[in-house]
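In response to the reviewer comment on reproducibility (Comment 2.3), we provide here a single inverse folding case reported in full, input and output, so that an independent group could reproduce the run without further information from us. The structure tokens appear first.
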């Protein structure tokens, strides 16, 4: 492979894959699931017996390029270009993330990259996009730490009934949450927090910050783990933007911090709340691109049922210190953390989003801000839905797109995202968004919720 991924094809047979196989066989693994996430935000997979791993790790397995055109309902956005029925790609597992699945004994999982048959990366490979953006940051001496929050809702009325964030909810969900934390720990995922959320049956888990690729991989693994453990208790877990027509939604908030060497650039600087100039410029780049980023992070019509004012979903483009209604919430971290905890939370996104597209696009938007040395407008400390004209101007407050159609209009004009993704990926995202918008054009709110509830 041509791209810096670890070669596992050692001709002498002493490749690391043999050691990995031995370890997994010792853990009882017989099948390896290799997953990627499509442009509609659906994780898909192919699986191979563990014994086939050496060949698969070097040559991959065949996978159709048409998956770039898949929609949430498994139809395709187009049948030419990215939806072509001909041709083949190679799906290659990333052995560095190969993990025995604690909730599914006998199975292991690895996130996978997609290569062309000639050995170069497929231009639609989202993990390659993240690699590229991470390298672009490294070229400037910068690195990112990121982490997703995962919110989900189990079948209404089955578990976790009681007041919002209520201790009472632990009475019936404590063992379930314990199972989740134990399984994640066994899979090498460190939990920061876990708790009942606002709606009955709604929960949240957050995990420690990692490099951008690791954060996106972890988001996939966390969701799969929660889904599997829920089913083990006869429950279905919904990660959809809106799991019930009446309730508040499930967000997919992303925390990020920007580092140079061992220094957090969102701390100990001269800018707002201690940001350094570079840290501020990065966040200003993200803020500027948020309307276009909405088409990445809120990718389906269901997303816009969640992205509404005054439910902590971050429906307004603005930033603010600890402001849970701002799309970009700045967090200085607690006293005693020495600044390591300073980070920004992008609140407007949900989990219909492809996490690789999300982290790659945030990197692209932030780096463009650094490139142009952008400054932030004034931060805002209240609910932006109630801002007056003067505050809206001073803090550059603007309602984020309230429909996929509107988000796509911003996305298609984003030179930053087009250049970062490349024409193939950008075109495929655009085709999928436009088609998905048509797909739901005549749906009622209830239809949209019904069609997406169990898909992500
Ligand atoms: N459930 C809310 C959302 O859809 C987020 C609640 C919170 O701030 O954790 O984004
Ligand atoms: Mg939450």
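Designed residues, in position order:
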């Amino acid at each position: 492979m041509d791209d810096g991924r670890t070669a596992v094809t050692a001709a002498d047979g002493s490749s690391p894959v043999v050691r990995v196989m031995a370890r997994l066989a010792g853990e009882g693994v017989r099948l390896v699931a290799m997953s990627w996430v499509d442009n509609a935000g659906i994780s898909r997979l192919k699986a191979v017996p563990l014994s086939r791993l050496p060949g698969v790790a070097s040559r991959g397995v065949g996978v159709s390029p048409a998956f770039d055109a898949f929609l949430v309902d498994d139809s395709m956005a187009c049948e030419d270009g990215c939806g072509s029925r001909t041709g083949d790609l190679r799906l290659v597992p990333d052995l560095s993330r190969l993990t025995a699945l604690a909730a599914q004994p006998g199975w292991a999982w690895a996130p996978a990259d997609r290569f062309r048959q000639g050995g170069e990366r497929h231009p639609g490979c989202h993990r390659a996009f993240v690699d590229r953006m991470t390298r672009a940051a490294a070229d400037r001496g910068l690195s990112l730490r990121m982490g997703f929050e995962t919110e989900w809702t189990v079948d209404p009325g089955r578990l976790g009934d009681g007041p919002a964030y209520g201790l009472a909810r632990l009475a019936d969900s404590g063992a379930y949450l314990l199972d989740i934390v134990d399984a994640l720990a066994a899979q090498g995922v460190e939990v920061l927090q876990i708790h009942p959320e606002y709606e009955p049956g709604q929960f949240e888990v957050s995990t420690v910050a990692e490099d951008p690729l690791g954060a996106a991989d972890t988001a996939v693994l966390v969701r799969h783990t929660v889904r599997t453990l829920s089913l083990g208790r006869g429950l279905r877990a919904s990660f959809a933007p809106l799991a019930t027509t009446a309730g508040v939604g499930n967000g997919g908030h992303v925390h990020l911090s920007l580092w140079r060497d061992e220094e957090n650039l969102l701390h100990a600087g001269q800018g707002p709340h201690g940001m350094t100039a570079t840290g501020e410029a990065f966040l200003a780049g993200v803020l500027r691109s948020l309307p276009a980023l909405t088409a990445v992070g809120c990718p389906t019509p269901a997303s816009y049922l969640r992205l509404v004012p005054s439910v902590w979903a971050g429906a307004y483009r603005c930033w603010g210190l600890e402001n849970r209604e701002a799309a970009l919430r700045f967090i200085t971290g607690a006293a005693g953390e020495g600044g390591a905890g300073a980070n920004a939370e992008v609140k407007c996104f949900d989990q219909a989003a492809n996490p690789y597209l999300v982290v790659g696009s945030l990197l692209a938007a932030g780096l463009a801000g650094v490139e142009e040395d952008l400054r932030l407008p004034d931060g805002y400390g209240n609910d932006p839905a109630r801002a007056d004209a003067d505050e809206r101007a001073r803090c550059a407050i603007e309602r984020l797109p309230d429909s996929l159609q509107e988000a796509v209009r911003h996305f298609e004009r984003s030179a930053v995202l087009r250049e970062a993704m490349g024409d193939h990926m950008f075109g495929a995202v655009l085709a999928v968004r436009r088609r998905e918008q048509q797909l739901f054009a005549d749906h009622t709110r209830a239809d949209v919720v019904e069609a997406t509830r169990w898909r992500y």
